[in-house]
Design a protein that fits this description.
Largest sheet: 6 strands, mixed
Number of helices: 28
Number of domains: 3
Radius of gyration: 34 Å
Strand content: 5-15%
Distance between the termini: 50 Å
Shape: elongated
Helix content: 40-55%
């Protein structure tokens, strides 16, 4: 059932908000990123503030819900305090921090130039420019260094000196950081008038400046939307994502990190340790295949495993990950780490050696959770490997992990574990998987999971490099870096007028080492094959053996008979796919297939 969070909205004086920031009454949830505004943006917000322009609402969460505990921290520039917050800022950190540091704090603002150079600045309002309607208000906001001297010529020439109050009075530069301090503001006004000997012109200028600028700022109100303390954690996450369009999207991991921090536990540090194990950084065989497993995937796998074992309903949606108990994380993380280690071993057995060749990183979530449930001894059984392999390849060739996958993850762990344990299983992923004969021609780039999957299946058939004659195992794959190349080269096919959708499809591509690709060049197979035999010092029988290991009809290949070669290789690839999925491709003889290939593939 949907939860109505019923936020309250109230226009609130900026002075009150900055005071709450200063005392720690209003703080940041720890998942918020650091303040990042540069000098130009700070000047821009001061200019807008001084003209009373609207700058959007502030959104905050009432603090105090025992079930939604976040670690909190002060805004940058606020003096340390042990005060508990009444509110946590969800949206408005950049604006509030900029205004607090420039207009409320007496310390120089630590900011940076537009080129990223770190600087310290105080900000002044040029009274004359503020009152001149022809001046852009941005130009009336004057930034000065920490010593309040603007210099040029390698600091040899002082262009503006505001290092004393008399210099401020003389230049008619009002320090913006006293504007909310009524006593300091009145003292400055008295000093300004006295310095100018109560001259009518200066008295009138200050009066106009006070009325049109100072009172605009001190009376400024911001709409503040407050979410009640009973707002659920997943709603906080969704709200933050909706309002944080100008920054980097908040991740589930950051919210859980803030929650776990209330236990004195540093989730990010713990993830770094777990990550290195999952990625196999200390394994003897070095491969990057697991580096797509990120922190959110890790938490999702733990949640899936936890709910499968302890709940009547297996689920791992965002709200479930956000609700993952700290105790469950500590109890189950090691099982998931072991699950990922088994998943890595399984991938290598399926000839998926590199991250760039991994069809789906998302499929590793249910794979790791399944392995965690069944354990190492069951995982190593040949029957288990057969069940896992069929499920894995059905998911890839059916291209079933490209969208929202949480429901499929839950189906997978229930179905695959049941199948492995010899129980009745719905096998929903296996049964729903479908591969079309026409899909082969549409696989033109390595971006799709099916494309990567087919290349792994070709590896699994022990294909041999044309020049080296070696099969691709993990060591050779990581050391030599094979890539996917055209068998009938692009230049040759273009010259012959063959259709691009055919010669550029996966049917005309195969994994080869760089040296073989260099020998192929842009020539016909009948010509580059002779060069390979000569350079590799092999006879035609050896070359034929190597070429046929790539599911290629050698006779058609050596005669440059593209059409026969193309149809035969499509049939050979589909046969390998059927073996991996454990089911037949049903449309090999369909009218659409015949139209595309020119013949039936049945």
């Amino acid at each position: 059932m949907a939860v109505n969070i019923a936020p309250k909205s109230l226009d609130t004086e900026l002075d009150e908000l900055l005071r709450d920031v200063s005392t720690g009454k209003m703080q940041l949830p720890d998942f918020q990123r650091s303040w990042t505004w540069d000098d130009g943006r700070i000047r821009g917000i001061i200019a807008s503030l001084s003209q009373g322009y609207p700058m959007g609402a502030i959104m905050r969460l009432e603090y105090g819900n025992e079930n939604v505990q976040f670690k909190y921290r002060l805004l940058e520039g606020v003096k340390p305090t042990t005060a508990l917050p009444d509110y946590l800022i969800l949206d408005g950190q950049q604006r509030l921090t900029s205004m607090f540091r420039a207009t409320y704090s007496k310390e120089p603002v630590d900011t940076k130039t537009d080129k990223g150079k770190e600087i310290k600045r105080f900000y002044y309002l040029d009274m004359k420019k503020c009152l001149d309607e022809s001046e852009d208000r941005y130009d009336a906001v004057i930034p000065v260094p920490e010593d309040k001297k603007v210099k040029t010529d390698f600091d040899r020439t002082v262009l503006l000196d505001l290092s004393t109050k008399d210099f401020e009075y003389e230049q008619e530069m009002f320090p913006i950081n006293i504007i909310f301090d009524s006593s300091a503001r009145e003292d400055w006004a008295d000093g300004y008038k006295e310095y100018h000997q109560y001259d009518k012109q200066f008295m009138e200028r200050y009066k106009q400046f006070r009325t049109s600028v100072i009172e605009t700022i001190t009376g400024y109100k911001l709409p503040v939307i407050t979410l009640g303390k009973d707002t659920p954690r997943d709603a906080v996450c969704k709200v933050f994502e909706n309002v944080n369009t100008g920054g980097v999207a908040l991740t589930v991991f950051e919210l859980v990190t803030a929650t776990f921090a209330t236990y004195g536990f540093h989730l990010r540090d713990d993830w770094t340790i777990c990550r290195d194990i999952i990625w196999g950084r200390n394994e003897e065989l070095s491969t990057d295949v697991m580096r797509g497993v990120d922190e959110t995937s890790f938490l999702t796998a733990i949640t899936l495993y936890t709910n499968y074992l302890s709940s009547s309903m297996t689920t791992c949606k965002k709200k479930d990950v956000l609700a993952l108990p700290f105790e469950a994380y500590m109890q189950n993380k090691q099982a998931i780490i072991e699950g990922y280690k088994m998943a890595r071993k399984f991938l290598l057995s399926q000839y998926v050696f590199r991250l760039r060749d991994l069809p789906y990183t998302t499929q590793l979530i249910p794979l790791a959770a399944i392995c965690a449930v069944i354990g190492t001894s069951t995982f190593n059984l040949p029957r288990t490997q057969k069940i896992l392999s069929r499920w894995y390849w059905c998911g890839i060739m059916g291209e079933m992990y490209g969208g929202a996958n949480e429901t499929r993850y839950a189906n997978d762990i229930e179905d695959v574990v049941a199948d492995i344990q010899g129980k009745d299983s719905l096998n929903r992923t296996v049964n729903a998987a479908y591969f079309s004969a026409t899909r082969l021609i549409s696989l033109q780039t390595r971006n799709s999971a099916a494309y990567k999957g087919i290349m792994a299946l070709v590896y699994r058939e022990s294909c041999r490099d044309f020049m080296q004659g070696t099969t691709m195992d993990i060591v050779k794959s990581m050391d030599k870096s094979p890539d996917i190349h055209h068998i009938f080269p692009e230049a040759y096919c273009t010259k012959q007028g063959y259709k691009r959708d055919k010669w550029n499809s996966i049917i005309n591509k195969t994994p080869l080492l760089p040296e073989s690709n260099r020998q192929i060049g842009g020539e016909a197979p009948s010509r580059y094959s002779r060069r390979i035999m000569r350079e590799a010092q092999i006879d035609e029988e050896q070359l034929k053996y190597r070429v046929e290991s790539h599911l290629i009809n050698y006779d058609a290949f050596i005669r440059d008979d593209f059409d026969t070669y193309f149809v035969d290789r499509a049939k050979a690839i589909m046969k390998v796919i059927e073996a991996a999925m454990g089911k037949e491709i049903s449309d090999k003889g369909s009218e659409q297939t015949i139209n595309l290939y020119g013949v039936s593939l049945a």
